[in-house]
Amino acid sequence: MRIVIIGAGFAGMYAALSAARLREIQGVSPDQLEIALVAPEPTLVVRPRLYEPKPETLTAPLLDVLGAIDVTFVQGIAETVDTKSCMVKIATAKGTKKTLSYDRLVVTTGSRLFRPNIPGLAEHGFSVDSLDDAIALDKHLHGLARRPARNGRDTVVVAGGGFTGIEAATEMPARLRDILGANARTRVIIVERNNAIAPDMGAGPRPVIEDALHRLGVETRLGAGVASLDESGVTLSSGEHIETETVIWAAGIRAAPLTAQIPAERDNFGRLLVDRCLQVPGVQGVFAAGDAARAACDDEGNYALMSCQHATRMGAFAGNNAAAELLGLATRPYHQKGYVTCLDLGGAGALFTRGWEREVTMVGDVAKKTKQEINTVWIYPPKAERAAALASADPERVTDVTGFL
């Protein structure tokens, strides 16, 4: 028997850990139940940190921990999924093709930045969506110091005033000062189509965010979108033209395209609709988790967000349930009733909220300390020690990434 997990993000990593944990508990050998993880690289990209400097350091190796729990790593890109024949076709790192059969499939392919067909965006836009994107942006920012201080060299425009856009924008003043010098006359501008910053955060946290932006000198353009980009800068839907050499696109994400190959219903974000055990209805043997799945967190109408906070626990349930079905055990309904957010606000500290209503419970330096602990400790893989790694993946005990629940 074989479980195939596609993707080595937070959901994929914990799906592998949890499936291996249940296999160990049941005394089943890896020869009897193989767990294979398919990904381009044997690393976890710490995507929530890609707005930070030195993005090339923001990865964590997985080979040792996978080896410690007897999970097979298959290096390559899953190109096609045939759910009728239960086969995954993989393009390997050596340029060859490989097919892998499965008895249970766990789709944890994550998400991609949504890039609309805006003139000039592909040629002139940057992002912090992937490791390569973040490295390209960091290289570009350092290259600004070699350019003349004119034509918007010292201006950064961030398109999108949501979670990612705010973290990228509030980190940018310090990054620019480090690169261009403390006396550089830098500008950072957030462009947001809605009439309020952080539209999804609600009214409670917004004054804290607005105060942080004011303290950092970050400007906003609300009720306007990006109409076009060119070498001179960005033109907004309002008609305003901002001279800049750096535009960071941070306006929404969608599930990775591979989910479209699963013959099942999807939401507007491309996520597969799953039942409470994270199975894809009507498709035998297929589970989905993380940004690839739209899953109910509770019985009150709350659904998992596209974040590592939810992906970690969803992955643990999906991996456990895939193994449970093959071993003749009962599956466990996914649940994640608690929800917190921790938004980095750069030099202005951070913002911590609790609950789906986002009640503000920490701000400033105290929240910043929590954010730094989340980013540098809690979201990283467990140590490559078999017992501890397996113990970390009990789906009923895997908390959200902040460890506060």
From TrEMBL:
Pfam families: Pyr_redox_2
First and last residue of the signal peptide: none
UniProt entry tagged with the keyword Amino-acid biosynthesis: no
Annotated SUPFAM superfamilies: FAD/NAD(P)-binding domain
Domain FAD/NAD(P)-binding as annotated: residue spans: 1-315
GO molecular function, one term: NADH dehydrogenase activity
Keywords in alphabetical order: FAD, Flavoprotein, NAD, Oxidoreductase
Keyword Iron: no
The family this protein is said to belong to: Belongs to the NADH dehydrogenase family.
Listed PANTHER family: NADH DEHYDROGENASE, NADH DEHYDROGENASE-LIKE PROTEIN RV1812C
Protein name, entry field: NAD(P)/FAD-dependent oxidoreductase
Species name: Bradyrhizobium cajani
